[in-house]
Amino acid sequence: MKTRLRSFAVRWPAVVPVVAFVVLVLTWGSSLGAGLVALVGCCLAGAVLAAVHHAEVIAHRVGEPFGSLVLALAVTVIEVALIVTLMADGGDKSSSLARDTVFAAVMITCNGIVGLSLLVCAARRRVAVFNPEGTAAAFGTVATLAGLSLALPTFTTSTPGPRFSPPQLVFAALAALVLYGLFVATQTVRHRDYFLPVTAEGAVIDTDDHAHPPSTRTALVSLGLLALALVSVVGLAKGVSPTIESAVAAAGLPASVVGVVIALLVLLPETIAAVRAARRDRVQTSLNLGLGSAMASIGLTIPAVAVASVWMEGPLVLGLGASHMVLLALTLVVGTLTVIPGRATLLQGGVHLALLGAYVVLAVSP
């Protein structure tokens, strides 16, 4: 029995994407009962975990900061696919789904992942040390993208409601793509050393000390399985989306909770990866994961839904409400004060987690 469990533990990342894809093919277009929903839900969760595992394998092969970029992109592709598939069938009731999911991703990454990573490292080493140049650049880009895409629509007057007019939406989408592209170039080419982990004395760590990188063949196999897992996630999410929406409605919760569920689903594995890095005193890697995911979530989701809105029915609502605007402003102020010194204690981690807690409470009870 132990031998079988060990064998499965080694092979599950390769088996799960295949199983999930087979379940997707067999259930595509079918009305799912309770039993099938449970099966599809398990396969969906397994496919998400497998996708992030294979992204980590590829990340280990290419090294930092490319590894964090690969993982962030993989998670964001899942998120974008889930949003678009749910919006395609939702009509008017899904008009704010993109906003709710992107904002949930920003709060979870900038407060949840960042706060938990700082808390874990500071608890072990008293002070969490990271590179302020790279972290400040990433956080500044996240702040700009969030302001242009989520805050600005609330105050525009060309269209009724917290919405962009078509020209404004085109500008926001292009600005998001350009800023994200500039950040990737800065992170991987021009100033790569700004995004590498540092020691307590501030020296850059440019080596990986915990395992040998996988072979090229292993990385290519993981790339193929990653693609299969992502396809499975998109298809299975489309199948269970009516159940998620019905469960939220039956519980008497706001429709925005659906966006929170999506963000939690796709970011949970990445949160685990960030905490693991923080436990190894690689807080910079954790911050790269968290802020990179926030940036990719906005920088890729907004252009994707802007294109999708061409053929989708109903309005595209992007502007935040008053309470969420306050939370965003607090997050940006607190995040700025956290990253500028390049050092953080338990207090900073606790403050970020308190903001995440406030967001969750207001999402359930607005």
Please, could you describe this protein's structure?
- It comes from Streptomyces caatingaensis.
- There is one protein chain.
- The model has no long low-confidence stretch (mean pLDDT 82).
- The chain has helices spanning 2-27, 34-62, 66-90, 97-125, 132-151, 166-190, 216-250, 257-279, 283-308, 322-339, 346-364, and strands spanning 128-129, 343-344.
- The chain has 366 residues and is mainly alpha-helical.
- The protein is built from eleven helices and two strands.
- The longest helix is centred in the middle third of the chain and has 35 residues, at 216-250.
- The protein starts with a helix and ends with a helix.
- The radius of gyration is 20 Å and the shape is globular.
- A two-stranded antiparallel ribbon has the order 1-2.
- CATH architecture, by name, is Up-down Bundle
Identify the overall geometry.
globular
In whole angstroms, the N-to-C terminal distance is 50 Å
Count of alpha and pi helical runs = 11
Tell me the Rg in angstroms: 20 Å
What percent strand?
under 5%
Low-confidence stretches: none
**Strands, total number:** 2
Helix/strand class: mainly alpha
CATH-defined fold name: A middle domain of Talin 1
| Name of the CATH superfamily | NCX, central ion-binding region
The largest pleated sheet is described as:
2 strands, antiparallel
